[in-house]
TrEMBL record:
The keyword Nucleotide-binding applies. It comes from Frankia umida. Residues 20-91 form the GHMP kinase C-terminal domain. This is GHMP kinase C-terminal domain-containing protein. Signal peptide: none annotated. It holds the Pfam family GHMP_kinases_C. The lineage of its organism: Bacteria, Bacillati, Actinomycetota, Actinomycetes, Frankiales. Transmembrane segments: none annotated. The keyword Transferase applies. Keywords: ATP-binding, Nucleotide-binding, Transferase. Gene3D superfamilies: GHMP kinase, C-terminal domain (3.30.70.890).
């Protein structure tokens, strides 16, 4: 089996495990799984790059970060980090200069919160 196929199978299991961890209020486990997913993308699927690796490394070293990984596509994607909401300011203050020191680039952070996601809405298109 190729390393990419191994990654896909492991990542499918990780997604389910992250859902269970977040549902069970276990951010430490969810964070560890995010980092494992990033390492798999980097080492097995071979789609990361120096800037994404630097972003993940800087994130997981910053206060309040449970874990991080690249997302969105390698070689030009972005990284996500699971951060304790009470530590967001400290995370940003530490992450930004650490990323810049590693890459020479300015970090851009988008702070967001989880939401319910998508849902199905039934439209009544019948006319009266």
């Amino acid at each position: 089996m190729s390393s990419r196929a191994r990654y896909v199978l492991a990542e499918n299991a990780r997604v389910d495990a992250v859902v269970a961890a977040l549902t069970g209020n276990d951010p430490e486990t969810a964070g560890r799984l995010l980092v494992e997913g990033h390492r798999g993308l980097r080492d097995e699927f071979e789609v990361s790059g120096p800037e994404l690796d630097a972003a993940v490394e800087a994130a997981i070293a910053a206060p309040g970060c449970y874990g991080a990984r690249m997302t969105g596509g390698g070689f030009a994607g972005c990284a996500i980090a699971l951060v304790d909401r009470t530590q967001v300011d400290a995370f940003g203050s530490t992450f930004r200069p650490a990323y810049t020191a590693r890459t020479g680039r300015r970090a851009v952070l988008h702070i967001c919160a989880a939401s319910d996601g998508t849902s199905i809405t039934t439209l009544d298109l019948a006319t009266s």
